[in-house]
Amino acid sequence: MSEILRVNPIACTGRGVCAELLPELITMDPWGYPIVPRAELDDDLLELARKAVAACPVLALTLQRR
Amino acid sequence: MTVELVARHPARVARLPRLLAGPDDLRPIGLLEHERLHGPLPLPQRPGRSQRDSAQRRLIELIERSRLTGRGGAGFPTGRKLRSVADAKGRPVVVANGAEGEPASIKDRLLLSRSPHLVLDGISLAALAVKADRAFLVIHQRQRRLGASLEAAAAARTAAGIDPIPIEVVGIPDGYVASEQSAIVQYLNGGPSLPTFSPPRTHERGFDGRPTLVNNVETLAHLALIARHGDRWFRSAGVPGAAGTMLVTVSGAVVRPGVYEVQLGAPIGAALSMAGGLTERPQAILTGGYFGTWLPVDLAWQLPLTHRDFRAVGGALGAGIIVVLPDTSCGLAETARVVRYLATESAGQCGPCVFGLPVLADALADLAYGGRQGSARQAGTLIGLVEGRGACKLPDGATQLVRSALETFATDAAWHEQRGPCYGIDRAPVLDVPGDQADW
């Protein structure tokens, strides 16, 4: 089962925790909001992605099955 | 205008107009006149449960066979939407979206003020199809007169015992994004009229947490005619893969700006002919409105009005907006004004939209009015940063418009950067911006 990362842009306040925990995938835009790729997650990044999801202070980052 | 269309499509004998049938003025068509014109609404009177179930099933199958697609812009198959709402868990709700947020479109306003009973018929049919127990007709709050006439129309139907469930007319606040379907649902739920993040999707969890069918009012008006005349009749207008007619709003450099009913698959040029032809040499055509696409005239003229043909040229048919930009206008300045307007219409919820659209508007203004070197490239970079990153489609609408402007007006952009703005920036704008927030 493949999963993708999604950010809820309404909830996101640009704290930047996700980009710190997952620099392999998430970069920041010039305004401090995360750019999250739409691609399916490789298995080796899944665990880190879960940590980033859990660490988001406003619960804006989610993993969605597809 | 009927004669001309038939002449262009000799193989088809569809009689037009359909939605706009009736006297050639803007007076609202009353209930009696409506029934004389179209026949009574084919709803089972006081049905038993099994009768209602079979009527519901047959209606959804009929709409599926008609291949009607949404006329609000997205073009999603209406039958499939009805079925997914009917099959979802919970008692469904029907919302007719008549709150036209797009400044370049007036077709929903025209339809509602002229043929309210077609839309109200469609709402009742949709409610039957999904077994809804509540139905809303949504317009903008500022449309007081329209609201009063719709309420009167709904009351006349209640008195005549036509609608199985009452149709509630609701006014939503102003704003480009207020008429987005998740914003409407949030407002009906007592919240602010702002778009929400999906999932949950409206058709699964919308009003009151129930499956909610949101349809454009023109879509529902077509439904009212399909229920009367059948799916084959509906498909007798249009082309294979794009059935029926649609309302288009034509403006800009045409003799008679206004709303016209055309067959799907007719070329844009046919709609422009219905509007009396051009008043000036054209430079480009804006299709799809302020979320839309600038196309060069030679490409646009022959382009068939179907979702597929528009997608093939990188555009979107949208809600049928066609604006002709005259040769002496500046497409970059027009785009700059619209992007500034879209930036001010941001709901202010998503960072990339809040911060990205103003700087995108700045880059366009720099290009159009300042001719600053590198501003076109900067706009291109900003497109990549903003696109796909909002909860609603506002940022994507703006980036689509800018991308197509940079392509269609590429020569102008190079001219602006090398030699400064063109004379076109002094011309009165073709694209209206509500309230004219752009203050250069």
What does this structure look like?
The complex is a heterodimer of chains A (66) and B (440). In chain A, strands 1-4 form a two-stranded antiparallel sheet. In chain A, strands 2-3 form a two-stranded antiparallel ribbon. Chain A has helices at 17-21, 43-55; strands at residues 3-7, 27-28, 34-35, 61-65. In chain A, strand 2 (27-28) and strand 3 (34-35) form a beta hairpin. Chain A has 2 helices and 4 strands; from the N terminus they run βαββαβ. The radius of gyration of chain A is 11 Å and the shape is globular. Chain A is of the alpha+beta class and 66 residues long. Chain A has a single domain (3-65), classed as Alpha-Beta Plaits. Chain B is of the alpha/beta class and 440 residues long. Chain B folds into 3 domains: 24-235, NADH-ubiquinone oxidoreductase 51kDa subunit (Rossmann fold); 238-326, Ubiquitin-like (UB roll), CATH 3.10.20; 331-436, NADH-ubiquinone oxidoreductase 51kDa subunit, iron-sulphur binding domain (de novo design (two linked rop proteins), Up-down Bundle), CATH 1.20.1440.230. In chain B, the strands form 3 sheets. Chain B has a 5-stranded mixed sheet. A 4-stranded parallel sheet of chain B has the order 3-2-1-4, with helices on both faces. A two-stranded antiparallel ribbon of chain B has the order 5-6. In chain B, helix 14 (331-344) runs antiparallel to helix 15 (351-370). The longest helix of chain B has 20 residues, at 351-370. Chain B starts with a helix and ends in a 21-residue tail after the last helix. Chain A binds chain B through residues 8-14, 29-33, 35, 38, and chain B through 196-197, 349-353, 355-356, 385, 388-391.
